[in-house]
Write a structure and sequence with these properties.
- The protein has about 210 residues and is an all-alpha fold.
- It is about 80% helix and about 0% strand.
- The termini are far apart.
- The chain binds protoporphyrin IX containing FE.
Length: about 210
């Protein structure tokens, strides 16, 4: 009986590892798709303004991964199983990864590393200021995402990681502000964000006043 249980546990762990590898590759798919477009695979292109195309795609994926990270806890509650939690850190780090590429794309390809232009843009264009703020708040979350930091910070880790709520709201605000005409998509992102944050508020209220 004990042997059978051990075998089942090891089989479960093996499956989870395979699933994690598959999710990791899936998270790289948006980047691979951009490379494929850049290389003209299947006749696809990066459009008339390739820098803008790449900048927008990377920003959008940064936001998508932030929302996916926030969706893990509600998913766990809905299906009543803990395994989705094993993917939260990976999804959060991919949000950071795409946001970093987005920033690098802006700094290098859009601004040509021209420091005066970069500083002027950050100071004078509010949507850029908000984007930079969102990114700066994301950095400590990525840096403290290791098990070692979790142990070291103890209860403060959880408090620190609540910053993700501010990051996602700033990310959506950044998106809303930069869109000039059709705001339907940023509003859709806002609705998703409010839904995910609202779920957390409701869960907390239920816990404190049963
Ligand atoms: C590091 C600081 C950041 C800078 C300098 C920055 C800059 C920019 C710029 C220049 C654009 C294109 C604006 C235009 O073409 O009019 C853009 C778009 C965007 N950014 Fe950022 N951004 C930053 C951080 C972020 C972060 C942290 C997120 C969310 C995770 C984000 C999400 C987006 C989104 C969703 C778009 C629009 C994509 C689309 O229109 O399809 N950005 N950003």
């Amino acid at each position: 009986m004990r042997e059978w249980t051990c075998a089942a546990i090891s089989e479960g762990r093996h499956r989870l590892r395979l699933l994690k590898a598959a999710v990791f590759l899936a998270c790289l798919a948006p980047l691979a798709a951009l490379f494929a477009r850049g290389l003209g695979v299947g006749g696809a292109t990066l459009g008339a303004n390739p820098v803008e195309f790449v900048l927008h795609a990377l920003g959008k994926w940064g936001l998508n991964f932030l929302l996916l990270t926030l969706a893990v806890s509600p998913l766990r509650a809905i299906i009543g199983r803990a395994w989705p939690l094993g993917f939260r850190r990976m999804l959060g780090l991919f949000a950071f990864f795409y946001a970093t590429l987005h920033l690098l794309c802006w700094l290098v390809l859009d601004q040509g590393l021209y420091l005066q232009g970069i500083a002027a843009d950050i100071a004078k264009r509010p949507f850029i200021t908000i984007g930079v703020l969102a990114y700066l708040l994301l950095v400590p979350l990525a840096v403290t995402s290791t098990d070692r930091m979790l142990r070291r910070l103890g209860r403060r880790w959880k408090t620190l990681h609540r910053l993700v709520y501010a990051v996602v709201l700033l990310g959506v605000w950044h998106y809303y502000w930069l869109v000039k005409a059709d705001v339907r998509e940023p509003l859709f992102y806002l609705a998703m964000t409010l839904l995910l944050l609202g779920w957390r508020v409701r869960t907390r209220l239920r816990r404190t006043c049963p």
